[in-house]
Amino acid sequence: MVVAVRLPTQGLLLMFLGAVLLRIAGTDAYLRYVVEWMRWPLLVSGALLLLLALGPLLREDTDEEHGHDHGEDGHGHGVPRVTWLLVLPGIIAFVVSPPELGSYLAERRADDLVAVSAPTEATSLGGDGPVDLPVEEFMWLAQVADPELEEQQVTLTGFVSYGGGEDGGWYVTRMQIGCCAADAMAYRVKVDGAERPERDEWVAVTGTHVTGTGVEPPFEVVLAAESVEIVDEPLQTYE
Amino acid sequence: MDETLTEQPRRARRRAVGQMELVALGLLVVVFGGQFVAPYLDGPQFGTWSTIFLAIVIQSTPFLVLGVMLSAIISIVLSERVLQRVVPRNDVLAVPVAGVAGVGLPGCECAAVPIAGSLIRRGIAPAVALTFLLAAPAVNPAVIVSTAVAFPGEWDIVAARFIASLMTAVLVGWWCLSRGSRLPLRRLEQVIDESSSTRERFVATVRHDFVHASGFLVLGAALAAAVNSFVPRAIIDTVAGQAVLGVLTMALFAFVVALCSESDAFVAASFTAFSDTAKLVFMVVGPAMDVKLASMEAGTFGGAFARQFVPLVIGTAVACASLVGWWLL
Questions:
Q1: Structural domain of residue A120, as residue ranges?
Q2: A98, A126, A141 — which closes off a domain?
Q3: CA-based max dimension of chain B
Q4: Nearest residue in A to B54, CA atom
Q5: Residue B238: CA atoms inside 13 Å, Cβ hemisphere, count?
Q6: Which pTM value belongs to this model?
Q7: What confidence tens digit (pLDDT) does each residue in B29-40 have?
Q8: Is the CB of A95 less than 8 angstroms away from the CB of B37?
């Protein structure tokens, strides 16, 4: 049987959770889990949890001075034992420091049909050199068979995920999150004509769209690669 | 088990000091020793689970903090007179009013649980508070906007979601009303007696509500993250063609993945193989009930209540969404 959580320990658990929020939001690590505007709510609620923890922790001190003559310490009504689970986020954050979502989830979600929506601001195509395009926008242009995409050199940046089977090809991949990492969707474009790099390696692939791919379900868009460059992982890995 | 009654309190007290010190020591070990264990835990499955788990916890915690602050304001600061003026005296009428009032809380479902608890504590009929709990995460402006963005140009889906969610909340509210005192609700009392200062009572209520809900939130997040990272969606797609099975699968899926109501529309939109009605069911069930909410509600209102409330809400949500879907979509 699990021991009940006593009041000073409650304070400690709250403090730990608050510290986790502050630590995650204090660095860029929070971008792996939630969207950008969550930073301030995380900092504020982390600080509030620390304040909240002070009460029970200080009360413990006074009890020490008074030689434990307060008896049951004011927590007559039981706190649910599940409260112990509050240590779990902290343990995970400090021990595992979970990475951003990568090829494992993207490959498991490979058969999902992702909803590609029109970009809010379209990148202007045309010109001689390759144009940097978000993976989702490239998939959108392919799906609506935009005539401007033909012969247009583009550069897609993302991490590497593999197709099924022994050599199912490889994909340049970006994850997208709406609220937090739980609702992540994988956008991927198959790369043709280039040796496949290691899983989760970040690459910038330059090439042209293979006309006609990605128009019909399951919307697999193919990029005929001319060059594949290994690049540094960006700060914001989600698109 | 063989200790005498007189010995027990002394032993318990000795453990009280020991517990806090033990936990503090454990946390220090985790904080400073964690980096040495990390290399052994880098499997991609575990990594993905922990990312999603931590994401759900840290996404929900600010909303839960907001919820317990609002709930403490309702419990402590709001005067009896204000409360009575806001809530109609007639409970049958107050239920739909509470449903529409949900429009005013643009937050996630985690914020609504402590608020409903504090409304009950203040003597509002449980049926009214529970209607608010069900409606708020589903009908607020943030959710309506995100649904409209996820389904561009498909206003009928946005309208259907609003109507079906409100209908679910009000119907469940009226059911609770009809059960009256037979509802197996845990008695919720003011956390601290009237003698202490307002500030003390405020802080104690915030802490009490947070501690009572957050453990269950973590439990729900752990389960939802497991489903999210280990159950392939392809399994779900196999039933997409079947009308009834499709609807039931989407309802079950909404319950187990426990998405935030502000982003579930995007996930629903990605189930392109399913009928619009099935997608609607996903978006109506999710905000009203999921594994994280069920866990928190069991903690706040008691297990006996949750065992009746959870299946009832899911059933009503599926029925309302199917009906509205058949009518509008």
A1: 104-230
A2: A98
A3: 72
A4: A89
A5: 3
A6: 0.83
A7: 877 777 777 666
A8: yes
